[in-house]
């Protein structure tokens, strides 16, 4: 008889992972859920470093998961914030055309908004000034359902709701190995302290030692690299996964005792304790690891068919004396030839005005500035064919983004297209974020949310913006898939 520590194990305590745990506890009370998070608290990366915008869904093509979940999620997020006293505001936003070449794209957005049932209003220059006196444009649309929220507070609330319903969130727990066999998954994590690099360079499907041992590090990979090697052939993966379970099952009693003591820890309980290897056994695994989701997939012996290529979004904040230049949210008309929305103006919940982001390649998965370089992360990006296809396809766009990253003057020039009154000295550096962008081998950027399934595992492989907006319906979708797997394994 195999001892399970939980029915469902979630890797990642960002807003999507926590929403999933919350959705499971609501849909199937009594289901044992554990969430593992390598950081000392929730929402430390994409969730806690985004612009805080509740997106309307106007940008996304009908029938896409992004459109469906953003349309549902924007209304649900407002209600969730109301119900739980989380700071938010439905502000509306302007999408502004500053050049005649942008007008056809603006009109296409108006049509798409109407197809989605989103309240949109066409504006001329005088009407733009009524909303935003300092913003310059030939035409614009006002989108009524856009808003702002404190998504970090939303994530913390979801964690509380899930734990109140019986789930356990274990912080300071870095996954180093995954073994699997029919109907069960075993995950080894360093609990209470970081080993230094995600997965410690451990190969996908390689054997785990018993509880208290350490996961092997590839001799050819730097120990702190965090790089997961690609999965071997199916037969090798199956054989090594069996070996992993045989090793972990042999120490089931010790692992169960270790996990029962560790699994209930919160950020306050785990911080400062000596690190130890703990094995968590589950019937179903959910991979919500964000910037490291492809590595988790490979640790599990699955070939994700994509790679996360990290892009850093750099922001500035308007000087306090100049925040009156922007009243709400102002976006440029997106160019479908380029992968990102462009620099926009966002008045946040706290009243500060953020300007950005530009988008440049990050030199580490969590590379929030140019000084943060992890050679193995960078080597992995450079060795991936999709990265070179992106570079060839968008080199002009990328050169402009790089120039704006290195020059505040160049960044200011770009902002002046929307906000002519802004001066270089008005811009103060602000914390950056890193977008976990799934890139296919041919260089195509995955445009929609990407959720895949393999036996006993649900992988969330692409969930950038508007994932925070859409996190509640995304969580229900993932929860439904995981619960279906549980029901199938029970039958």
How do you describe this structure in short?
With 491 residues, the chain is α+β, with helices and mostly antiparallel strands.
Structure, explained:
The protein is an alpha+beta fold. The protein has helices spanning 15-27, 65-83, 103-116, 125-131, 151-164, 234-250, 252-262, 267-270, 293-299, 375-383, 385-393, 395-406, 408-415, 471-490; strands spanning 6-11, 33-36, 53-54, 88-90, 93-97, 120-123, 139-143, 147-149, 168-170, 173-181, 184-191, 276-287, 307-318, 329-332, 344-347, 353-361, 427-439, 450-454, 457-462. Strands 1, 2, 9, 10, 11, 12, 18 and 19 form an 8-stranded mixed beta sheet that branches. The chain has an 8-stranded mixed beta sheet with strand order 6-7-5-14-15-16-13-17, with helices on both faces. A hairpin with a 2-residue loop joins strand 18 and strand 19 (457-462). Helix 1 (15-27) packs across helix 14 (471-490) and helix 12 packs across helix 13 (408-415). It is globular. The two termini are 17 Å apart.
Helix content: 25-40%
Structural class: alpha+beta
Task: Report the portion of residues in β strands.
Answer: 15-25%
**Which residues sit in consecutive blocks of at least 5 with pLDDT less than 50?**
195-274
Radius of gyration: 23 Å
Quote the average pLDDT: 85
* Main sheet makeup: 8 strands, mixed
Beta strands, count: 19
Q: Gap between N and C termini, in Å?
A: 17 Å
Number of contiguous helices: 14
Overall outline = globular
